[in-house]
Amino acid sequence: MDLKANVGTYLSDLKEEVSAFKQEYGERIISQVTINQILGGARGVKCLLCDTSTVSSIRGLIIRGIPIKELTERTPEEVLHLLLTGEFAEDPAAITKDLQSRSQVPEYIWKLMDAMPENTHPMNLFNTMILAMGGESKFRKKYNEGMNKEDYWEYTYEDMMDILARLPVIAAAIYRKCFNKGPCIDANPDLDWGTNFAHMLGIEDSTGDFARLMRLYLVLHCDHGGGNVSALATATVNSALSDLYYSLSAGLNGLAGPLHGLANQECLKWVLDTMEQFKGAPSQEQLAEYAEETLKSGRVIPGYGHAVLRIQDPRFAAFYEFGKKYCGDDPVFQTVQRVFETVPGILKKIEKISNPWPNVDAISGSLLYKYGLKEFDYYTVLFGLSRAMGVCAQAVMARGLGMPLVRPKAVTFDWLRLELMH
Ligand code: CMX
User: Fold this and answer.
1) Could you read off the pLDDT of 219-228 as tens digits, one per residue?
2) How many angstroms separate the Cα of 287 from the Cα of each of 67, 103, 272, 302?
3) Alpha helix locations (H) across 202-311?
4) Lower CB count within 10 Å: N or C terminus of the chain?
5) Cβ(384)–Cβ(126) under 8 Å?
């Protein structure tokens, strides 16, 4: 069976189960909300459903029950099937083929890209191109024709596959345009989704290690539960039945923030700045001095800490393994290693910081840098390309389960005061 048929079977079984569950346990209380949580970005409030993946504070990212560290040898196609159905694909090549057949980017996108100001941030370009393709939405077309609710997931799925097929082509074109790398490189139909993307970027790769890194990168960033900014924004917008082009663009606009996906470019910049200041790979003492200065100036140390994790991010660990294997002699990677040996000790001494350990962004940039992908303004686009898989899969699940409009209740500060006085 193909992916869409598998998703259909999976959803119809789950929908029945969820509906019976709601009937029986609908009024059961599973979470309370404190004032701290209201004033703290709703951290820890359990009020969303996300089946594609979950983030445990002590185990990290778990996709459909499988810890991310067990998925590092898988391809993005295999992981996409897993996200959508909870099982591995019997024939991942069929997914590659389907994506290839949908990968033609509309001509107006190239014109629009050329018309954008030269200094547009790559992430801004990426999200603009996604939004601009909205007229292609099969969901929107069907909805306007009077689509049955039962079919919402199918056309969300169709939009997801069209988007995922075109995104690598668009992302690679943005890289080549923004950084004057020459004309776009044609796709190679013999390659899988991730390897083909690496090929279209045009980075020299005689060993195949860069393509290997790209596949790992695309797997590690693919999803991170339902409560992070990009997932929540995508889900909220999609719950209004705005099509996936609107929803994904909204979610990735959130990813573009420095406290979220943009941290990877900030992080590499921080590492390179230390190398510039100390004229080469700094010592632990020098790094400690630099970190203290960053903190004193009221800035965060990018790549460290997390809203949910209370351990070293397993995605960091996966990249670290890759780095030790393939980039051990690289001075930037060595600096990242030394930062890892230095910064947690400093952050641990600051009581308010919940997690002193590195997240995925603390390392990803250094590996890209080693292979010649040095333009760190581009890094969040790579993150976005990967994260599109998870947030779009979440949208397919939500429409398949008939989830309603997202509408939590906001209260005024006056209401809070009155509540406490009585
Ligand atoms: N450096 C300095 N201060 C930090 C810090 C860091 N790396 N991590 C947390 N803190 C500070 C927070 O800024 C906050 O200070 P205020 O109370 O003065 O605002 C305090 O410690 C408590 O924060 P927290 O409960 O530990 O963490 P939050 O859930 O509020 O924030 C995060 C999480 C990721 C935004 C934060 O750790 C941070 O800014 N890290 C650096 C940026 C980063 O790496 N972002 C990428 C995260 C991964 C992703 O989503 O892509």
Assistant:
1) 999 999 999 9
2) 32, 45, 12, 14
3) 209-220, 229-239, 244-255, 263-277, 284-296
4) C
5) yes
Model pTM score: 0.94
Q: Which tokens in the block code for residue 235?
A: 């889900």
Tell which wins on pLDDT, 384 or 419: 384
**Among this protein's residues, is 306 annotated catalytic?**
yes
Ligand 1 binding residues, C-beta < 6 A: 228, 259-261, 263, 295, 300-307, 352-355, 359, 361
d(CA 100, CA 158): 14
Confidence of residue 1 (pLDDT cuts 50, 70, 90): low
Report which ligand 1 atom has the smallest distance to the Cα of 362.
44
Encoded amino acid at 292, one letter: E
Residue length of the chain:
422
Of 221, 260, 268, 304, the one to substitute when testing ligand 1's pocket (max ligand atoms within 8 A of C-beta) is: 304
Within 13 Å and on the Cβ side, how many CA atoms surround 215? 20
Instruction: State how far the Cα of 202 lies from the Cα of 144, in Å rounded to an integer.
Output: 41
Rounded Cα–Cα distance for residues 229 and 254 (Å):
6
Which amino acid, residue 299?
R
